[in-house]
C-alpha cells in the first residue's frame, strides 16, 4: 500500500481535478452501490464475526450485475480495509462508514471527490495525526496483545515481519505436473494474456505478474494448476516422497498438500488424506478428480482409535497441523481480529496432542513432516523440542527445519520440520 504517501496534496486544484476526472467519475458511479457493498461486507466481518473471504464471495455472488472492475474494487477495498482496520479507525474522524472509507482512500494516496458525504473530512488533520503517531502496534494495525506476543517470540525480527505480513499477497500457482509442464502452462496462460514468472527454489511454482481471477481460466477447470502460495509448496517437497510409497496426510483439510504429494509421487502409490472434518475431505475428492489424481483415499478421524488402527503403516506422514495462521496474514488479514491469546493457547494444545499420538502411524525407518503456517516459535520449534523430549518422540530425530519468514522469502510465513523415525 502506498501508505499515506500523498496525503499532502489532497485538496484538489482545478488541474488536478481534471487529471482525476476519470477516477472521480468512477467513484461517483461507486457511490450508490460499490462503496455500500464494501460497508455491508465490513459489517458482516466485524459485527457478525464472519470470515472475510466467505463474506466477499457471498457479496459478489448476490450482486451478479456488478462488472469486473466493481467486483475487484469491492474485494480489494474490503481486504485492505480489514488489514488496516485499527489504523483507519484511529485516523478517521468518526466511526461513520463514509468517514472510514474516506480515511482509507486518503491512506491509499488518492484524492477525495467533492461529495457531501466527504464534506467533514479534513485530509490535513488526518495527515497530521498520522505523522504524530509513534505507536508501532497502531501503525502496523495489530492489536496490542498480538504486537507484544510477536515481540516476545520473534524479538528483533518481529517488526519487519509484521510489516511484511501486512503487504498484499502475490498470486502463486502450483503447476499440476501430472497434466502439464511448468513451461507449457506458462505459455498456455500467456495466450490468455495471463503473464507469469518463475523463481528459483520453487520448482512447481508460477507467479502471476498481475493479480487476476485465474479460477475462471479453462486451464484451471481442466486441472492444470492449483492456487497455492510458494511457501506452502515447500511442505510436500520436504516430505521427500517417491512413487509407490504409502503416505498419510493426517490434517489434509481440502487437500492442497495431498494433491501436491500425489503429483510428486507421479500418481503411483497411495496417499491417505485424513481430517476431523468430513466436509473438507469432500473438497479433496472433487479437487482430486479435477486434477486427475487417482491415488488419494480419504478417512475421517473419529477418535484415537482411527489413529491406533493405522499404527506403523506410513512411509511418510505429514502433520500440517491447525495453527494460529499468523504466517498467512497477507491473504487472511481478518485473522488479526479473530485471534486471542486464549485461542492461540488452545491451538498449541491441539498441536501437541497431535504430536503425541499421530507419529505412531510412521513405519520404523519412515519420515514425518510437521508444518504450520505460523511464525511463532511456540507453535513451531518449541513444539518439536517438546515432542522430542517426550516418550512419544523417543524414536524420532530432527533431520532439519525451515523457519520461513515473510520478510525473507517474500511469501507466506511457514515452519517445516523433517523428522526421521528409527
Ligand atoms: C492447516 S489446515 C490443513 C490444510 C491442508 N493440509 C491443505 O494443504 O489444504 C489444518 C487442518 O487440520 C484439521 N484438524 C483440526 N484438528 C485436527 C485433529 N485433531 N486431527 C486431524 N486434523 C485436525 C482441520 O480441520 C484443518 O483442515
TrEMBL record:
The keyword Amino-acid biosynthesis does not apply. InterPro entries: MeTrfase_RsmB-F_NOP2_cat, MeTrfase_RsmB-F_NOP2_dom, RCMT, RsmB-like_ferredoxin, SAM-dependent_MTases_sf. Belongs to the class I-like SAM-binding methyltransferase superfamily. RsmB/NOP family. The active site is at residue 373. SUPFAM superfamilies: S-adenosyl-L-methionine-dependent methyltransferases. Keywords: Methyltransferase, RNA-binding, S-adenosyl-L-methionine, Transferase. Pfam families: Methyltr_RsmB-F (PF01189), RsmF-B_ferredox (PF22458). Residues 161-422 form the SAM-dependent MTase RsmB/NOP-type domain. Signal peptide: none annotated. The keyword Transport does not apply. This is 16S rRNA (Cytosine967-C5)-methyltransferase. PROSITE patterns: SAM_MT_RSMB_NOP. One of its GO terms (biological process) is RNA methylation. GO terms for molecular function: RNA binding; RNA methyltransferase activity. S-adenosyl-L-methionine binds at residues 275, 320. CDD domains: AdoMet_MTases. It comes from the Bacteria.
